[in-house]
Structures are given as C-alpha cells and as structure tokens.
Amino acid sequence: MAPVRGDGMRGLAVFISDIRNCKSKEAEIKRINKELANIRSKFKGDKTLDGYQKKKYVCKLLFIFLLGHDIDFGHMEAVNLLSSNKYSEKQIGYLFISVLVNTNSDLIKLIIQSIKNDLQSRNPVHVNLALQCIANIGSRDMAEAFTNEIPKLLVSGDTMDVVKQSAALCLLRLFRTCPEIIPGGEWTSRIIHLLNDQHMGVVTAATSLIDALVKKNPEEYKGCVNLAVSRLSRIVTASYTDLQDYTYYFVPAPWLSVKLLRLLQNYNPVTEEPGVRARLNETLETILNKAQEPPKSKKVQHSNAKNAVLFEAINLIIHSDSEPNLLVRACNQLGQFLSNRETNLRYLALESMCHLATSEFSHDEVKKHQEVVILSMKMEKDVSVRQQAVDLLYAMCDRSNAEEIVQEMLNYLETADYSIREEMVLKVAILAEKYASDFTWYVDVILNLIRIAGDYVSEEVWYRVIQIVINREEVQGYAAKTVFEALQAPACHENMVKVGGYILGEFGNLIAGDSRSAPLIQFKLLHSKYHLCSPMTRALLLSTYIKFINLFPEIRTNIQEVFRQHSNLRSADAELQQRASEYLQLSIVASADVLATVLEEMPSFPERESSILAVLKKKKPGRVPENEIKESRSPLPIGQQQNAQTNHKTSNNTNADLLGLNTPPSGANNTTTSTLIDVLGDIYSGTNNTANAAVSNSKKFIFKNNGILFENDLIQIGVKSEFRQNLGRLGLFYGNKTQVPLQNFSPKLRWAPENAVKLNVQIKPIEPTLEAGAQIQQLLTAECIEDYPDSPSIDIEFRYNGAPQKISVKLPLTINKFFEPTEMNAESFFARWKNLGGEQQRAQKVFKAQVPLDLPGARNKLLGFGMQLLDGIDPNPDNMVCAGIIHTQTQQVGCLLRLEPNRQAQMFRLTIRSSKESVTLEVCNLLADQF
Amino acid sequence: MMLFMLLFSRQGKLRLQKWYMAYPDKVKKKITRELITTILARKPKMCSFLEWKDCKIVYKRYASLYFCCAIEQNDNELLTLEVIHRYVELLDKYFGSVCELDIIFNFEKAYFILDELLIGGEMQETSKKNVLKAIASQDLLQEDETPQGFFEDHGLG
Predict the structure, then answer these.
(1) Partner-chain residue, chosen from A8, A16, A88, that has the shortest CB–CB distance to B145
(2) How far is C-alpha B51 from the geometric centre of its chain's CA atoms?
(3) Is the ipTM of this complex over 0.90?
(4) Which of A434, A447, A880, B154 could be joined to A899 by an S-S link, Cβ 3.0–4.6 Å?
(5) Which residues of chain A are in CATH 3.30.310.10 domains?
(6) Whole-structure pTM over 0.90, yes or no?
(7) Rounded CA gap, A733 and A565, in Å?
(8) Residue A898 and residue A881: Cα distance in Å, rounded?
(9) Could you tell me which chain B residue has the CA closest to the CA of A168?
C-alpha cells in the first residue's frame, strides 16, 4: 500500500485498496454499494459521529463520486464539517462542496455563512480555503454575498500577500459570473496599482484580473498600460538570478511576462505616448534578441518557457501591425522554428506565421518560406501540423504564387488525411477562383479537384464552377471540351457527371463540330453514366437531354426513346418518371420556336462573392486564416474596430448565398434570375433550387406605408406603418406559405452604426418557429434623431426543411417618412425658394423618365411621398411643386421640391431645396429615377 | 484561462478532474470520455496541442499518467505545458518521487496542491517554494490536531 501522509485516513486507504483489488466491474459496483449502505446507515444512525468519522465518510463518498458514480447524500455532513474547528475536517468539507456543488438553495446559504466566518479568520490558511471555495463554485449567490468583502481584501494594506493573490483570482472568477460586482471609481486605480506590487505572485494574479476588467472597460483601465510596459521591461532585462524563485528554468517570470503581453494586446495602438512606445519596442526587441542567444539549459522546460514569452511577444507585434522591422524579425524567427526538431514549435510557428502572412509588412517575408511550408504539408508525421501548414499556404497565397501553391495542394490531396480533405477542397477552390488570371486554369483545377477528391467536393464548389463558366464566354468551349474528356474515364465521380451534364447541356454545341464529340457521342457518353447515378443526378441528366433536343434536333429520336423508357414504371422514382413524361410531351408538342425559348441558354448570374468562402468560415468559425492582406492598422480604439469587423462580416454574409436563390438579388435584374440547377425545378435539392422568382418591392415603399414588402415561394412579408412627428411604428407580418414550419426563424436588423445613431430602431423579438400557413407579427419602433441617408434592412434567416434560407429586405424607413406636409401660397413659396438659393441648399438631378412619361402617376407618387403637393403655384401646369417639414429630434428641416417634366425629351428635372445640405442630398437621391 | 484539467492513466482510467467552468455532470463525462480516447490514440512524437471544439487541448504524458488541460483559443500553449510540469514538480516534491498510486490514495492532497497553484483556471502562484510553504502550513495545522480514530479505523471503519 502506498504511504499515507499527515493524518491519513486508514479506513479510506483500505477502501481504495479494496476497489483496486476488484477483479471485475461488477465486483467493484458491489463493493461500492456495500460501502454506500454502510455510510448511509452511519449518517442515519442514532450515534452522533465525531468529526473524524464524518470526514472519513465524506471523503469516501467523494472518492466514489470521482470513480464516476452518482452521490445523492452526504451534503449536509460535508456542510457540517465546514464549521469544524479542526482544519483537516474543514478542508475535506470544502473539497466535497467544491467538487459536488449542488445549487440546493438551503445548503448554499449555510455554506455562505461558513465561508463568511472563515473569511474573518486571522489565519491566512483559513481565509484562503474560503476564497478557493468561492472561486471553485463561483455561483451568482456567492458573487452577491461577497461583493464587498473580496475587493476590500484585495486592496487593503493589512492583507497578507498569499491572501491577496487568492482574492484577486477569486474576484476574477466572480466577475466572470457576474460582471456588475466590480466596484468602480477609486477602486480602479487601486486595482491597477497592484501591477506595482513588490510581490511577484500578487502581480501575477492581479494581471489576470486586470486583463478581464480591461476587456470590459478599456478606457477606465487605460492607466494599466504604462505600468505593464515598465513592469515587463524590468522583467525582461532582469538577470535570471534577480527574481529568485520566480525564475523558471533560467527564464525570469515567464507567467507574468506572458500575462502582461496579453494585457497589452487589449489596446491598439498599445499606447500613444512616444516614450512608452519606445520602451515597449525596446522590450520586444530584447525578447527577440534573447531568442538568438544560446540556451542556458538543455531542458525542454527552459525552451518552452522562453519560447512561450517569445510567441506572446510575436502575438503582440502582429496585433499592433505597425512596426515593419519587428514584423520582419518575428517572421525570420518563426522561419527558424519551421525546421526545429520539436514538433510543438513547428506547429506553433506555422500557426503564428498565418497571422504574419496577412500583414502587408511581413507578407512577402512569409513567402520566402514557401518551400519549407510545402515540405511540412507533405512530410509532417502529425496531421494537426500538416493542417497548420495547409492553413499557412492558404494564407500566404497571392497572385504570384497561386499556381504553384494550388498545384502542390492538389498533389497532396491525393494522399491527404480524410479529416482535412473537405477543408482543403474548399481552400483550393477559393484560391483558384480568386487568383485565376486565366479561367481555363480555374476550370482545370476544379475538375482535378473532383477527380482527386470527388467525395469531398461539396455542392457549393460545383455550383460555383458552373456559375463561372456560364458567366464567362471565353471558357465555355474549353469547359465543354474538358468535361467531355473527363467523362471518358471509365470510372468518374458522380460530381463530375453533374458538372459534365450541366455544361454539355448548355455548351455541348460548341464542341459538336468535332466528329469525336458529335452530338450522339456526347449523349451516349452521358447516358452511359445514367444508371450509376443517384436520382438527383439522373434528374439533372434528363434536363440535359431535353436541352440536347434543342441544341441537336438530329438526335431527338434517340432522346425521346430514353424519355419513353423512363416515363413508365421502369422508373421507380416518381419524380424521374414525371420528369421524363413531361419532357417527352414537351419534345413532341412544342414547336421548334417554343423549344428554343424554353430551353434557351442560361442567363448570366449576377456577379457576387464566392459562396465557398462562407462555407469555409462556417466550417471552422474563428480559426480560418484570412487570405487577405490587411492595410496596416489604423489607430482605432478597440471597440470601434470590432464594430467595423462585424459590419464587414454582415455585409459579406448577404452576398454569400449560393447562387442567388435564397435572397432576392440586389439590382435591377432580379426578375431574370432563375435557378441554375434545373430550369424546370428539382425536388431533390430542396428549397435551394426551388424556382422562386422572389419579389421584393422595397423601392415602391418610398411612396407608401402599407403593403407586401417581399414575397417568394416560402414566405410573404407584409408591412403596416404609421408615423407621427419624428416617431414611427412598423408592424411586419411574416406569413409562412409552405406546409411545414419554418424553424430558427430570426429576423435581425441591419443598420450601419453611423446611421443607427441618427435613426434609432428598436425591434421586438419574436418566436423562432413560424408554423405552416401561419402569420406572425413583429413590431418595430423608429425614432428619427437626425436626418440620415438610405434605410435600414432586415435580414431574415430561417430553416426550411432543414435547409438554411436567408432573405434581406429594405425597410420602408426612408427619411421622407418623417415629413409633415405644409400648405402655403405662391407668394410664400417663392419667397422661401429664393431664400434657399445657396450652393449647399440646392440639389438638382436630371434623369430619363420611365417610358412612357406618366404625369398622373408621378403626381400620385408625390402624394404618397409625404410632402404637400401644391397646385396652382408653378405657372407651368405640368410642373409639380411640394413643401414639407422633416421632423427629427434635434431640429425641423423645411424642404421644397420642384419636378419639371420635359415631354419631348422624355426627361425629368428634379430640384430640391432645403435648409440643410445633407437633407437636400438625401431627398434628392431618394426621388431620382423614380418617375 | 484554463477550462479544466484531467489526469488519466494509460489504461484510460480517470485519476483526477478539475473543472474551472460549470459544466453539467453529463457533459463532463462525455468530454472526459472523448478526450481520453482521442489522446490515447495519439502517437508519442506527435504535437502536444490539438484543436478541439472551440478550445485548445494541451497534454503531456508523465510515466503512466496523462495530464491534459483545455485552454481558451488565445491562451499560450507552451506555457500551459509548463503549468502541467510545475504541478508535477509539486506533486513530486510533496510525495517524494510521485507515482500514480500516490495520486490514487491521496487524491484529496492532489486537489489541495492544485488549488494552491491555480484558482479559477488562472495561475495563482508560480513559485514552487511558496506553494510548498502553503501546503506545509496546512499540514502543520493538521498535525496540531490530535490524531484520533486510530482504533476505530481497523477493519472497514
């Protein structure tokens, strides 16, 4: 038996030995049940147990619990131990409570009482025990109960160092549960000054606390920067003997150094004081210099601790992104680590270099290491290291090295681990598209991807290649030729059949002149794959065939034969059967003209950001390296930067849907968008492909307040709104048009922060499920503080049959909604008009009328615009003039309007005059092109 | 911040668990099971860090015991290895050439030592001397107390 120290509990040791000697799981359970029965009877028995026995039994229960069994009694006995005057009993009581905490409210009160008593103790060992328990449980009750005591302990001059250390971390733990417990005011500076404490242990603990406080309130704690820089500088320049026990394997205070370096990363720029900045840079240089010195010990602990500080310093350098010299040095240092014999260092160096690759100062420096990184991707024994190498290659890729990197990644894909293939496919697809100077190269890369790793090519990837081929005439012939060749392979991946089917259906005619790829050969080649494919691909092929009938009338009979075969019971699949029969009929009854129209080549897709990027980001949130070189950082406070980033993200997302199927595409050509996959709809791929010519009417809502804002096959969104002075109220009505509930239904407001301060919009939350056929209402209120351009949007996300959907709609909240119409006679109108003649008060636009020029229509629109339409003022009866006042919280802005039609030229001239320049422009922009 | 620390044997038996985040018991068991399987499957020369869910795992093997910590994305991996090492040094110093059995039979001590090193998942005291001093003063308090229960303790107790 192992030796037992202190006042070892023999009974416990015997019990543990018994358990260890059990030959089987059953025997163990039997022994445990026996023990549980024994303890239960002791606790229930008449005889009062003494402290020692209680302690021993509680300890046994704890052991049983740690073996993985449930414990449902003994809590009261443990709580009793807390008030024992024997330390060892108290300690076991606390341990039991910490491990088996139960938010049983009666007990919590008792526990808090015991802790209170121990916090008052003169013995620091008791106080610490209590603090550790609070930190271990860290519940809300605790936070509330000790709001006063713990901060006091932390900064009081009487508190012993060991207690201060525990108090700092205990407070941190409670702050994480309950952020409002931290006192402000004078406490702030007292807490910050703990960074100057004599005792290194106190500083270490306090730095963790301050780091968390800074994150919540960077401005208030800004004073910590100077103290942290000077403390860090002192540590880094100290010799390892100076700090005695806080030196770890010849590295002075590595924990504190790392914490201070982290603390500084909360600010950007770290400091604006040149002196402090110089001192910090000097310190960072010293850390980099030390990395070049020969090691003071061969032990791995020495190198780990030293490099831990070095990596954190490099993080800070990358975070600041303002010192080219330091960035380049950091990069060289990491480059050395790439060939270090420690796997851990290689892993971290690759990871850290990913960030350096995105800085404009060090991007080129990182590229120098390309060969080594490629080798790492191929040769590393550990897949997690190889993964890092792939990430880095992705991050360092630019136009100059794209072909090489993509080729290397393709080569590696053939043998790559299954766990990273899918992600690699996405990365290759993104890089190939982003840096393609020649789209034939892009087509080759994607087809290679499908050939090498077909199973890992997600829908997004092959959708995208089709989108690009359709939009770029110059590659269509090449694409057709290449897929035709790829399909010759005896075994080709189903994704290849999909792409091949689609492309040949559109552009097969471009290669039909070559006798080797004559129409019939194309058709037979595709059809030879038909029986090996899933129903979804078969359906796609049937669509290709009907398109062939249009492209190649000479093979019509062959194709009709195939349709005939599949239009009866031989097709077990109802969709295929129906499709085949309908196509067959179409090919029989429709004239050549009709066929040519129905089966016309797909129109171009609106150009948009690749959706694959969004998939990659979703797959690994937070850790996908950027492949985008950042401009060097502007000195924005951290909060604003985060805002800027989130904005960027949301705007990306709106462009991120696959093919424009899920959201109404912006721009004028929204009605021409049709589905890519299949002109006639495809039930297999769910709603992603249902042909839904979504209708979004947001422009009309400049002139009206109520109506249907948006509608597609799934959902209808209606709006009712009313405005008074500078306040508005909107009701949005979401109607589910489908037979199934729409899940995770979440509308979110999108409104740029710089505008949100001018128009304050509040949105009421609604239920996340929209039942089939149901309608729900969501209320919004808007308050106009100041005039603003544009109008907010609402982004609606939901799941339909599990498939994510996204819709974005502009809200009818343009500035004109806050107009109050104003009556006036000709005299005062012209007087005001003249008064508002200044350069900044006028705005004018001349634009072509929507044909035909419609004067009554224009009048109607103006009536709905919110201003007063004034008749009999302008001498020319065709001209329209209006007057109104815009109500904002800060001021009222008078505004005049004149709209002059020119019947001959079919043009309008619009003039706006108002007392505020921004209003003039905003109103003018709203109305331009509307008539 | 450290999220939790697990000690388990080469046979996959959990020897010590310390959670710095409030997870439900079910989740704890699931995490433990998954991590033990993942780590035991890794080969000796592999990297000591792995991405896992939304956190990072840092682990190291000492003789028959694996020490495994979960840390947040921004935390320093190398230094976490040294937190583990410091803890091992402390156990070693306290028990005198610590072995797995010491931790099994004196699990409560292992907890007490850990509580002196880390609080709320953050390093409280990095000095080995100071931690040992704190533990010694705890033991001193115990020894002042009269040892009792020796007789009752024979047999099953």
Answers:
(1) A88
(2) 21
(3) yes
(4) A880
(5) 816-929
(6) no
(7) 48
(8) 4
(9) B124
